[in-house]
Write a structure and sequence with these properties.
- By secondary structure, the protein is of the alpha/beta class.
- About 5% of the residues have low confidence.
């Protein structure tokens, strides 16, 4: 039976994915779009989805919030660190509850500074407010669930953006890498072997080589997974934190998957975050804190886990201890515990190799890159 779903920041990857999925199965969408300036194509797409009503403007306006949540049965709230996040998050939750929303899913993130005794970590500036909004929503008399997304596959780019830049590497440089890259990466052209590809890629980041990182294709997999949470309802997911990561891989394993998908050499280098382009001050502070918190020995970091043990073991609305499905010690059937919940919600997920093969070259070409063209 169709329901009415209200969602905030609909041009973001999370909410846009959910809007597409919900509209496709006949639900009615009340979507908030702050501005069409930065993502005009996505904004137009959302506005043209069937059964969709769009509300434009800032969430700081009480009238807009009232219109957004009016008549909604369920709500997805995702706040951003660039717009008074804590205040906006609280006001959106209040507006949803006032409108009679029966179930809220909020996109949260961990504050490592509140991980508990014996964990001498600090939080990340752009995650702290999300954690506080989650705590506020828990204090309200409304069923709620909190999704924690892993790292987006499409953070990767060969553009010189910090942290997830895949630096293009000439073939001459690839041949200087340790290992038998020359023999591993020959190309047959007209029946004859040629000297490799046009380029390889190198990912430098502060994470230790054995650090397990959670990953997902947000645009492809976030929407179906959250839609299933809404379908199951608060009886199953109420009060819980749910990790939305379909794979948990260390950096070398990520590079190996990228390499297979791109059919090019990709290697990982543990090192400091390099900032070579202008970025907002707040993001600079986030990157500095991230390197210190998650960084390994090379950058003198704390090597804290991305998600600490026990973060997803919470009390549900009835006060009973209940962990998300599959979140137990150890691995079952080779699947990391923090990936099992997401996989149980959505079986059609795309892995990073598939993303590298089918999507990454398209996004790169849209960014003006031509490395995917075969050498002459």
């Amino acid at each position: 039976m169709p329901v009415r779903l209200a969602l905030t920041n609909a041009t973001g990857r999370q909410a846009a994915s959910l809007a597409r999925s919900a509209s496709a199965v006949g639900h009615h969408i009340s979507a908030h779009i702050a501005s069409t300036k930065y993502s005009p194509l996505v904004a137009n797409e959302i506005a043209e989805l069937p059964h969709t009503e769009v509300h434009y403007g800032s969430l700081s306006g009480a009238e807009l919030r009232e219109e957004l949540f009016a008549g909604a049965d369920i709500a997805f709230i995702n706040t951003t660190p660039f717009d008074k996040e804590l205040d906006i998050g609280k006001r959106c939750a209040d507006a949803a509850m006032k409108a009679g929303v029966k179930f809220i899913v909020y996109s949260s993130m961990p504050d490592h500074g509140e991980a508990g005794k014996g964990k001498d970590w600090h939080g990340l500036p752009q995650y702290r407010d999300k954690w506080q909004v989650e705590k506020y929503i828990r204090s309200l008399n409304v069923p709620s669930t909190f999704v924690y997304t892993g790292i987006y596959y499409n953070n990767f780019t060969s553009l010189p953006y910090p942290l997830f830049c895949l630096r293009e590497v000439s073939w001459d440089e690839v041949e200087q890498w340790e290992g038998d890259w020359e023999n591993d990466w020959v190309e047959e052209k007209d029946g004859e072997e040629t000297k490799g590809r046009k380029c390889g890629f190198e990912w430098q980041a502060p994470f230790s080589s054995d650090m397990k990182l959670p990953w997902l294709d947000t645009e492809h997999d976030f929407g179906p997974a959250v839609l299933q949470i809404f379908k199951d309802g608060p009886g199953r997911w109420g009060g819980q934190r749910v990790p939305l990561a379909f794979d948990v891989l260390d950096p070398p394993a990520v590079c190996a998957a990228l390499s297979r998908g791109l059919n090019r050499p990709v290697r990982y280098v543990e090192g400091p975050i390099e900032v070579t382009v202008s970025i907002p001050k707040g993001y600079h502070e986030q990157l500095d804190a991230l390197q210190d918190l998650f960084g390994g020995e090379v950058v003198n970091g704390q090597n804290a886990p991305y998600w600490w043990d026990g973060i997803f073991d919470v009390r549900n609305d009835k006060g009973n201890n209940r962990a998300v499905e599959g979140n137990t010690n150890g691995q079952e059937h080779g699947v990391d515990p923090n990936a099992r919940a997401a996989r149980s919600l959505w079986e059609g997920w795309r892995d990073i190799e598939g993303y590298a093969r089918d999507i990454f070259p398209v996004e790169e070409r849209l960014n003006g890159k031509d490395w995917m063209d075969s050498p002459e």
